[in-house]
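Human: For the file, kindly provide a plain-text protein record giving the amino acid sequence and the backbone structure tokens, at your earliest convenience.
Assistant:
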Amino acid sequence: MKIKFLSFIASFFMVSFVITSCLDDDNNIEYSPDATIHAFALDTAGLGSYKFTIDQLSREIYNEDSLPVHADTIIDKILIKTLTTASGVVTMKDKSGNDSVININDSIDLREDLTIKVWSTEALAGISPNQTKEYTIKVNVHQHDPDSLRWKYMDKINNQIQITGEQKSIIFGSEVFTYSVVNSRLYVYKNSLTNFGSGTPQETIGLPEGKLPTSIITFKFDGSNAMLYATSDDYKVYESEDGINWEVSKKFGDKVELLLATLTNNQISRICYIKKEADNQRYFYYQTNDKQIETLETYDEGKVPANFPTKNISYTVYESATNIKSVLLVGDTETATLADDSELETTIVWAYDGSKWVEFSTTSSVAYCPKYTQPSIIYYNDLVYIFGQNFSSIYVSNQGLFWRKANSKFAFPHRDWSKGGTPNPSVDPEFRGKTNYSMVLDPATQNLWIIFSKGSASFEEEVEKAESTKSTTTETRTYNHDSEVWRGRLNQLWFDLAKAGK
């Protein structure tokens, strides 16, 4: 950029001082001691308007809202649109280390912090040479795409005992409890949400030996502490205060097959579950926190539809514009679920607002969610997402009815297999093909935790057969992996929560 030497400017002010001092007092010019910057703005070249804060105490100029990722290709040669001072003279060091005046009509490189000096008219005139102030300009740029999921490998879940089969996880207090059967014994891995991986597995007491619970839920009845409730294949409900020691709960009757979800509206919480009666028919029941009474749902005589999920239940809660919370639930079903106008298998979402379970099936073979085994559903950043075993894709919906494939940025780690070798979770991770897993979402931090069991993975991938013809072929990828823990969060939420001090 072109810059003018300060010596010329200073000489002009000194000559002006000599001339005015020879005039009458009425004609004297008062020189300002003000050496502060009053306004600053950059021409962000179509990126939008970004407000810059001028901190007069720390002498820093910075933008609180970071510029988009890769904006460094713009700010390497950017124009200063506004730079307002009392004297109008601002300098920076040139290549020789001399103070030279900045010409804002020329571009400037702000990829690195820039120190500038503001000169008062008194300093320029030589009356008070120390009347200058230095400011540091910092242009903050996002280092990560705000629309992308950022994943972090948290190492193996535990080096003492490897999880090798099915598992279930739940958040209880500030910990994640992961249950898995190892060597015919049911263990629980307790891990802090702030220090995941430090927990030691402990054998459970009181639950059916060697059996993974069919469902686990946390709930708090009035007058009691929050408890964990679990079902097993013996149709009993078990309760625990610590996740290790369990006993049969007296709060529920017999024949409880599955705990479904909890929901709170207007300070009334309810726990919903399914009972399988002697006629082999399933029925919806619920209890509320204020009235420990087992109640049959009144609509359709409480009967559970044949296509309702009966295994690997996953649910999330979202709040409508009218501040009413509803449950969205998915799981594995005993019957096939097809799109109404095709033979395509789908994942159907069930909604519950506290009065009735409603099937959110779509009549379209375009806007449907494909069939996932052991599906997981989350309400995240005001959208609903579903994924499942094999981890090849994620589907998204506004309210759980019409679905589309999520943006390619909102995805799981997929490696480039053309370079050979096998996946290394620390370097080039791969999620595709993995099966046994559990997932929890921390509502406080919006961290998505995924725990994988040790095992082998396999999936098919379409690749180019010949670059010249663009023809493709299907390759089968196989690999082995240990038990792994992963933490993911949308980059935009990293930024938002960091501002909120979370």
About this structure: The first strand starts at residue 3 and ends at 5. The chain is about 5% helix and 40% strand.
